[in-house]
C-alpha cells in the first residue's frame, strides 16, 4: 500500500457520493417505461418481499433494521455500489442472452466517459513509477463475421496497485489508468499499463455494514474494465480477470465468467507480463 494521509483517505462516503454524482450526470434517463410495465415489475418486486417476510417470519425489529439500513445507503450515496455489486450482473445476463460475440459483464460504478484518446499502441496515463507489475494488453477487434473492424474504440479503465480508481479516490491524477484507445486499420491494439490489484468494495459505509452483518466478504478479483465499440456494431462492456486470483471463484459482484479470465505470460521484452485477448462484436440491432 502507498502511504495515505488521514485527510487523503479513500472513504465509502467519498467514493459513494462520486459514484452517485457520476450516475446522475451520465446515466439517468427520463422515464420511458410504460405504466403497464412499471405496474407489473413493481407489483412483482413488492410481492417477492412479502413472500420473504411470510416465509421467514420477519419481525418488527428486523423490519426497522432494514428501514434504517436503506435510509443509510442513500445517505452514504451507496446506491450505485449496492446495485452494481448485487443486482447488475443479472440485468447484464438478461441483456446479453442471445448474443454471439465476446461475452461482457457488469460496468460497475467507476466508468467515466471521455477519457484521453490514445493511439492503437499506447501507454495508459499513469504516475511516474506507478506501482504494479507492467502489463501489455493486446489484441484485435473483429465482427462475428470474422471481418476486422478498423478504428474500433476501446475504453479501458482499472484500479491501481492499491485497488483504487482515479476520480473515486483522493490524490490520484484525474485520468490515471483510464484511456480511449483507437485500434489501427486491422482492428489491433497494444496497451501498456500495470496489472490492477484485487479490489475491496468500500467497507466503511452501508454496503460494508451489510457485508459484516451477513458474514460475507467485500472482495472482487483484480480486473480490467473495457467498453469496446465499432461502427455498425453493438458495443460490449466487459471486465477481464487474471487466472489464479484468489477471489476469482467468489467475486462479491458475481461478475466473473470463464471466458473473461486472462492468463498473462512473461513479457517478450522481459518487463512484466503480456496477454492477448481478441474482441468479437455483434452487429448493432
Ligand atoms: C464495484 C466496484 C467495481 O470496481 C466493480 O467493477 C463493480 C462494482 C462496487 O464497488 O460497487
Ligand atoms: Fe471495477
Commentary on this structure:
The chain contains 6 helices and 14 strands. The protein has 285 residues and is of the alpha/beta class. The strands form 3 sheets. A 6-stranded mixed beta sheet has the order 1-5-4-9-10-11, with no helix packed on it. Strands 2, 3, 6, 12, 13 and 14 form a 6-stranded mixed beta sheet that branches. The chain is globular, with a radius of gyration of 20 Å. The chain starts with 11 loop residues before the first helix and ends with a strand. It binds 3,4-dihydroxybenzoic acid and fe (iii) ion. Fe (iii) ion binds next to loops. 3,4-dihydroxybenzoic acid binds next to helix 4.
* Overall helicity: 25-40%
Query: Secondary-structure element sequence?
Result: HHHHHEEEEEEEHEEEEEEE
Give the CA-CA distance, first to last residue. Answer: 45 Å
Any idea of the CATH class? Mainly Beta
Keywords:
single chain; 285 residues; alpha/beta; Protocatechuate 3,4-Dioxygenase, subunit A; six-stranded mixed beta sheet; 6 helices; 21% strand; globular; binds 3,4-dihydroxybenzoic acid; binds fe (iii) ion
Tell me briefly what this model is:
The protein has 285 residues and is α/β, with parallel strands linked by helices.
How are the SSEs placed, and which strands pair?
Layout: H1 12-26, H2 35-56, H3 60-75, H4 79-86, H5 88-95, E1 117-118, E2 121-123, E3 134-143, E4 153-158, E5 178-182, E6 188-194, E7 199-200, H6 206-214, E8 219-220, E9 224-229, E10 236-242, E11 261-262, E12 265-266, E13 273-276, E14 279-281
Parallel strand pairs: 1-5, 2-6, 3-13, 3-14, 10-11
Antiparallel strand pairs: 3-6, 4-5, 4-9, 7-8, 9-10, 12-13
Helix pairs in contact: 3-6
The structure holds 3,4-dihydroxybenzoic acid and fe (iii) ion.
Residues 108, 110, 199, 223, 225 line the site of fe (iii) ion.
Amino acid at each position: 500500500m502507498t502511504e495515505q494521509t488521514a485527510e487523503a483517505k479513500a472513504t465509502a462516503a467519498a467514493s459513494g457520493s462520486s459514484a452517485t454524482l457520476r450516475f446522475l450526470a451520465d446515466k439517468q434517463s427520463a422515464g420511458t417505461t410504460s405504466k403497464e410495465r412499471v405496474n407489473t415489475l413493481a407489483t412483482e418486486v413488492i410481492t417477492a418481499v412479502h413472500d420473504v417476510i411470510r416465509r421467514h417470519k420477519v419481525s418488527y425489529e428486523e423490519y426497522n433494521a432494514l428501514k434504517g439500513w436503506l435510509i443509510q445507503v442513500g445517505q452514504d450515496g451507496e446506491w450505485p455500489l449496492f446495485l452494481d455489486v448485487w443486482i447488475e450482473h443479472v440485468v447484464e445476463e438478461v441483456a446479453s442472452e442471445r448474443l454471439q460475440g465476446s461475452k461482457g459483464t457488469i460496468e460497475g460504478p467507476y466508468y467515466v466517459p471521455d477519457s484521453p484518446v490514445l493511439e492503437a499502441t499506447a501507454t495508459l496515463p499513469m504516475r511516474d513509477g506507478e506501482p504494479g507489475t507492467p502489463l501489455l494488453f493486446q489484441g484485435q477487434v473483429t465482427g462475428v463475421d470474422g471481418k476486422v473492424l478498423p478504428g474500433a474504440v476501446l475504453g479501458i479503465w482499472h484500479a491501481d496497485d492499491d485497488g483504487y480508481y482515479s476520480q473515486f479516490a483522493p490524490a490520484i491524477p484525474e485520468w490515471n489508468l483510464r484511456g480511449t484507445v483507437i485500434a489501427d486499420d486491422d482492428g489491433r491494439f497494444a496497451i501498456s499499463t500495470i496489472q490492477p490489484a484485487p479490489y475491496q468494495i468500500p467497507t466503511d459505509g452501508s454496503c460494508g455494514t451489510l457485508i459484516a452483518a451477513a458474514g460475507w466478504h467485500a472482495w472482487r478479483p483484480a480486473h480490467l474494465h473495457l467498453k469496446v465499440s465499432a461502427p455498425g456494431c453493438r458495443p460490449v462492456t466487459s471486465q477481464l480477470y487474471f487466472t489464479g486470483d484468489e477471489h476469482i471463484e467468489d467475486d462479491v459482484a458475481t461478475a466473473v465468467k470463464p471466458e473473461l479470465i486472462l492468463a498473462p505470460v512473461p513479457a517478450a521484452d522481459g518487463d512484466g507480463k503480456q496477454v492477448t485477448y481478441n474482441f468479437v462484436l455483434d452487429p448493432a440491432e
